[in-house]
Specification:
The complex is a heterotetramer. Helices cover 45% and strands 11% of the residues of chain A. In chain A, strand 2 and strand 3 form a beta hairpin. Chain A is mainly alpha-helical. Chain B has five helices and no strands. Chain C is globular, with a radius of gyration of 17 Å. In chain C, strand 2, helix 3 and strand 3 form a beta-alpha-beta unit. The longest helix of chain C is centred in the C-terminal third of the chain and has 17 residues. Classes of the chains: A mainly alpha, B mainly alpha, C alpha/beta, D alpha/beta. Chains B and C meet through loops of B and helix 3 and helix 6 of C.
Chain lengths: 422, 119, 169, 189
Amino acid sequence: MEKTVKHREFGLPESPNYSITVDVPHESDPDDLWKDSRVYVNIGPTHPAMHGALRMCARLNGETIEKSYCEFGYTHRAKEKLGENRTYHNFIVYTDRLNYCSALINNVTYAMAIERLMGVEVPARAVWIRMICAEMARVIDHLICVGINAVDLGAFSFFLYGFHQREEAYTLIEKLCGARLTTSYTRIGGLMHDAPPGWEKEVKDWVVRTRKTVQEMDKLLTNNRIWSQRTQGVGVFTREQCMKYGFSGPNARGSGIDRDLRRDQPVMFYKNVEFDVPVGKNGDVFDRYLVRMAEIFQSLNIIAQCADRLQPGPIWSEDKRVRIPDKDVVFNTMEGMIHHFKFFMAGFDVPEGEAYTTFEAANGELGFYVVSKGGPRAHRMRIRGPSVYHYQALSEMCQGAKIADMVANLGSINIIAGELDR
Amino acid sequence: MEYIPVLILMGFGALVGGGALLLSALLGPKSPNARKNMPFECGMNPVGDARQRFSVRFYLIAILFLLFDVEALFFYPWAVVYKKYLSINAFILLEMAVFVAILLVGYFYVLGKGALEWD
Amino acid sequence: MSKDGSSSFLTTRLDDFVNWGRKHALWPLPFGTSCCGIEMMATFASEYDIGRFGAEAMRFSPRQSDLLIVAGIVNTKMAPVLRNIYDQMAEPKWVMSMGACASSGGIFNVYSVTQGIDTIIPVDIYVPGCPPSPEGVLHALLRLQEKIQQGDTNFHRREREAKIGGGAQ
Amino acid sequence: MDIRTPVPTIYGDFAKKHMELWRGQGERLKSTFPSAIEEIRWPGESATDVPIFYVSKSQLVEVLRFLKEADGFEYQFLSDLTATDEEVEPRFEVVYQLASFVSGSRIRVKTRVREGERVPTATSVWVGANWPEREVWDMFGVRFEGHPDMRRILMDERWEGHPLRKDYPLRGYQLFPDPMPINVDLLKD
C-alpha cells in the first residue's frame, strides 16, 4: 500500500485550494418574492446537536428541510477487523468501546456470544451480577440519552439531575470493576472478580435514590409546556416505517411495537424476574422520551429484585478451557504457569461453528455474529449495532420538518457513534 | 442639570467596550492564513457562495419585532415618572392606554393578515 | 524586545499579566468524538465542575474558543476536519489531546485511525487514560495553565519565532 | 462441547423448541423454490445455532420476499445484513439474519458470490437494508444491483481497497488533504 502515510509526517498533505467551488444552482426567479433560493447547509461532524461525529447535509427552504442525507464513519475504528486479529480474550477490551454509554451491556452480550459457541455454563452468582450490571448500564444509558435530548432543547438542569445519578452509578461500577466507563468486566466463562462485600446493599440504596431523583426529573419535564410543544407530534415514525427500517429497542416501542428481547427471547434469569415492557402509541419524540423514563423505573425494579437474589458462590465456570488457573497455582506449579502463559499468549480455541447472539441493549437489539473456524481468533466477528438502523431513518424522519425538530429527532433516537461506526 | 451621571455612564460604557476592543487589537497576535479565512462550516470546506436570497418572511418577522420592541422602549421613561404624576391626576394612565391601544390595532391587523404564520 | 527574543523587565511584567489573564479564561471547544467525549461531559457537569477553573464557557465554534480539547479518536476521515477546526481558531490557541486514542491512537492501531493527533496538529498537553478520569482532565487543565503562565506552549513558541522572524525581515 | 450443547442461561433449548417449525419451513421452501435452495444446514447436524439456507443469487429477492410475507414464515424483521470473506472460491458469502416477531424464531439466509459479481439488492423488500449493503460494498467490494446510491459509507469516498477482506493489511492509513465537500446532486429531487 504505497499510499500509506509515514507515521511521524507532520500535518496533512497540503491541498492547493481550500474552498472547493461547486456550482450551487440558483433557481430563485426574481418575480416570486416569497420563493427563495434553496440553501445547502452542512450540519457537520463538530456540531453541538450532532452527538459524537455525525454529519447531515440538507437542502433547506427557509427553515424546513426539503431533502437531506446523513453520513457517518468519522469514528470508524475497525473493530470487526480487530475481531479477526485478536484472541477472544483480548477482544473483550474492544467491546466496551461499542456503546460507551452502557459498556457493561456490550461486555455481557459478547461474553454470552462466545460462551454459547463453546457451550460453557456460567454459575448463578455470575449471571445475577451480570443482570445487575446490564440493567444498571441500561439506566445510565437512558439517563444520558434523555438528558442530552433535553439539553439540546434547552433543559440543562434536567441533564444535571440525571448526570448526578450517573456519577453515583459510576462509583458503584468503579467499585465493581475499577473503571468508570470502559469496564471490560465480564470474561468468557465468568467475571473479572467477585463483587466487593456489601456491594449489593449499596446498589439497593442507589436504586432508591435514583427512583426518587427520576421521579423529580419526570415532574420537571413531562408536563412542561415548552417540552411537550417541542416534542409532541415531532418526528412521528409509524409502526410500518419502524418495521421497514428495522427499528428495535425504545425507538420501536415508542411507535407501538411490543417487542423486548428480555421478555420475548429470555436469556440469563429474566424469566424469574417480573418486569413489564412500556410501549408508546404515536411514535413521536415525546413517546420515546416517556418509554425511556418508564424503562428506567422497570430496570430499577429488576436491579432491586436481582440484588435480593444474590447468594455467595463461585463466579467462574468449571470448564477447563476457559478457567484461568488461580494465582497460587500459577506461581507455585510448573503446569499452572504454562497453562496461564498459554491461555493469555495463544488464547483458548473455540470449537468450529457460527452463532448470532442478540441481547436487548439500551438503544436496541445488539447482536454478535461470530463465525469461528476452530482457532483462537474469530474468522468473522460481526457486530450488529442498532444505531445504524436508527440513524438511517433520520432523513426520512426529518423530511419537511424544521431544523430545530431535526435536533429533537436525533436526540430521541439515541445514536451512539461508537456502535454506529464500529 | 443632572445629566452628568448619564454622561459618566455613557463614557464608562464606551471606555469598557472600546478598551476591550483596543486591547485585543493591540495585544492579540495576528497570523492569518488561507484556511483560517475560510468560513466555518462545521469543519468542512464551504461550497458555493453565501449570498443567497432569503424569503421575505425573515424580513417581515424582523420588522415586526423591531416595531413592538420600540413600543416597549417607550414604557421606560413613563414608568420612571409614573408614581410622581399619578398623585397629581390619573390622566397619565389614559395617555399610555391610548398609546397601547393604537399599537394593539396594528397587532391585530398583523394577526389577521397572517404575517406571523411561518410556512 | 532584545534581538534574541528574550524580553526586558517591562514587557515581562506585561507578558505575565497577559498570560495570567489568558490562563484563567480558557474557553474550551469540546471536540468530543467517542468515549472520552462522555468523560468530558462528566467533567463539565456539576460533579467535577470545570467552571471552577474558568473553562466553563463551552463554545462549539472555533472562532470563540481558545482551548481545543480533542476527546476521542481521530480517524482518517476526521483528520482533515480536525485540521480545519484547528486552523480556524483565533490565535492564542492551545490543544489538549484527551485520552489515549487522541494522544497515540490508543488500542486502535488499525487502518483507519491516525496514530496520535500530533501527526495532524501541534499539541500542548496530553492527558493519559482511556478514558482519563475527570480529575485527570482537571489536573491537565491546571498543568496547562502553569505552562501558559511560564509561556512555554506552542503558541508562545510561534509568537517568539514570529517576533524574531519579524525582526529579521 | 460446542454450539450444539444448549446453555440454559443463554437461549436455553432455542434450537430444540423451533426445530420442527424449521423443518416444516425448510420443506415448504424447497417445494416452492426447488432450484433456488442450494443447501440447508440444520442446527443439529452442522455447528450452527439456526438453520442456514443457501440461496442462489438469481432468485434471492423472491425467496426473501416469500420469507417475509408468506404466512407460516412472517420473518418481517431483517436483523442484520453482512458478508464474510471465505478466501476459497466462490469468495464471499452475503448473510441475511432474519427474525420473526410472530413465532419468535430466527433463520439465516446466505448466498455465495464470486469476486466482482453483483448481488440483487434487498432494499425492495426491506428499506433498512440500504446502509448495510453500502457497508458490505465498502468493506468487501461486493456490489449490489439496483441499489439507490452505491457509495462508500464508513471509509472516505476516495479510499482505495476494501478493508475487511482477508488480504487487506490491518495497519497503514491513507490521509486526504480536505474532507469530502457536500454532495449537491444527492440533494436534488
